[in-house]
Specification:
The chain is an alpha/beta fold. It contains 16 helices and 14 strands. The chain binds uridine-diphosphate-N-acetylglucosamine and uridine-5'-diphosphate. Uridine-5'-diphosphate binds next to helix 1, helix 10 and helix 11. It catalyses: UDP-N-acetyl-alpha-D-glucosamine = UDP-N-acetyl-alpha-D-mannosamine.
Length: 388
């Protein structure tokens, strides 16, 4: 009988990044997924479940309009506990740094269920930025048995925090697996924008950007539209009322701004491919845009994803209106600067992260003796600090 691995997620990005893991678990000869959707997000989660054909085994349906961190956390703890007591999985996987991740890891710990943390080791070392995500991932690290770090620098962060070498694995980020899977279905990608326009794609949702920073971002968008008469803006608006009310009020009436509801994942990939450049405070978008050869300007003061910045394909521009405007203007007017950022790079993975994670779990849970099916994948699933 296959052993059940709980795969817990609640928000859009967690579901996108866990979909390849669910698929790899379905292909395992000795493990199988038990999908627990907290539905910390409702509509945006459902979009992802539809695209990837995932039917949760348990849907906790926890989202409330304008939910508070404490209110959501308390609902998560009680509901996840019920499911874990009933199902007693052999292990549980969580992904990233959301409230669902922290609550899920804590409840797994209470129930003596080992936790695998997918996308482990990202750090800004500033507990208020991103808030509360930096605290969530640091605390989740303490509750984790297997840390699946996406990059060398995230693995190094964990080693610096003195996690035992044999618990830290560098696997790549499953976001690239999901992206590759989506791009295999160009026929299914709804063309939400016409190719050939000079389109700037914008997304924001971070708590640190609520209020004045978001107003400064909107002011920059308006100045850029004034500066460049052929520029068009596509802005899928996050449903968080702290975002949507401000964005709709400040940008809703401009004839060259298209505000829309969150796009389903395949349409969003198409929008990124059609974009000339991208402004975003999103984590996932920072990882996907470089792989698509699209310059991404990060609307934050710090990032836990330094690799794309180091590769010259992403730039941290913060939320200062003048700085955003001058950086975009440079990219719009200087083809050399634009091409340097549009060279394409994939510092976050090679599309085989989920396979590596499942291979490691099979080995760690003692249910597979034979060599990994994907030898290349296994070769790169390095134990950090292990002798060569
Ligand atoms: C959450 C995560 C953040 C992640 C982001 C991805 C936390 C603390 N924050 O932020 O790390 O980057 O998701 O998008 O876990 N809403 C809807 N429908 C939806 C989704 C959200 O209406 O499908 C609205 C609801 O009013 C909800 C609010 O947005 O209460 C906030 O959702 P929440 O998950 O608490 O925070 P996010 O800002 O989405
Ligand atoms: N995304 C999407 N539709 C949209 C905007 C984003 O499917 O309208 C995808 C995007 O491709 C990425 C993920 O959502 O994979 C990022 O989610 P978000 O920005 O909400 O969260 P973060 O990554 O910052 O945690």
């Amino acid at each position: 009988m296959k052993r059940k691995i709980a795969v817990l997620f609640g928000t859009r990005p967690e579901a996108i990044k866990m979909a390849p893991v669910v698929r790899a678990l379905r292909e395992s000869s000795c493990l199988e997924p038990l999908v627990i959707a907290t539905a910390q997000h409702r509509e945006m989660l459902d979009q992802v479940l539809t695209v990837f054909g995932i039917q949760p085994d348990h849907d906790l349906n926890l989202m409330r309009p304008n939910q508070t961190l404490a209110g959501l956390t308390s609902r998560l703890i009680a509901s996840i506990d019920d499911v874990l007591r009933d199902t007693a999985p052999a292990a549980m996987l969580v992904q990233g740094d959301t409230t669902s991740v922290l609550a899920g890891s804590l409840v797994a710990f209470y129930n003596n269920i080992p936790v695998g943390h997918v996308e482990a080791g990202l750090r800004t070392h500033d507990m208020r930025n991103p808030f509360p995500e930096e605290m969530n991932r640091v605390l989740t690290g303490r509750l984790t048995r297997w840390h699946f770090a996406p990059t060398a620098s995230s693995a190094q962060n964990l080693c610096d925090e003195r996690y035992p070498d044999e618990t830290v694995f560098m696997t790549g980020n499953t976001v690239i697996d999901a992206l590759f899977e989506a791009r295999q279905h160009p026929d299914k990608i709804a063309r939400s924008v016409q190719d050939g326009r000079r389109m700037m794609l914008v997304t924001t949702h971070r708590r640190e950007n609520f209020g004045e920073p978001l107003r400064r971002i909107c002011a920059a968008v308006l100045q850029l539209l004034e500066h460049d008469p052929v520029l068009e803006v596509l802005f899928p608006v996050h449903p968080n009322p702290n975002v949507s009310s401000v964005v709709r009020r400040l940008l809703g009436k401009h004839p060259r701004v298209s505000l829309c509801a969150p796009l389903d994942y395949l349409s969003f990939i198409a929008a990124m491919e059609a974009a000339h450049l991208i402004l975003s405070d999103s984590g996932g978008v920072q990882e996907e845009a470089p792989a698509l050869g699209k310059p991404v300007l990060v609307l934050r003061d710090e990032t836990e994803r330094p690799e794309a910045v180091a590769a010259g394909v992403a730039r941290l521009v913060g939320t200062d209106t003048n700085r955003i405007v001058s950086t975009v203007c440079q990219l719009l007017t200087d083809p050399g600067a634009y091409l340097q950022m549009a060279q394409g790079a994939s510092p976050y993975g090679d599309g085989r992260a989920a396979r590596r994670i499942v291979d490691i779990l099979e080995r760690e849970l003692g249910c597979r003796e034979q060599p990994a099916r994907d030898a290349a994948a296994a070769a790169q699933a390095v134990l950090i600090g292990a002798p060569a």
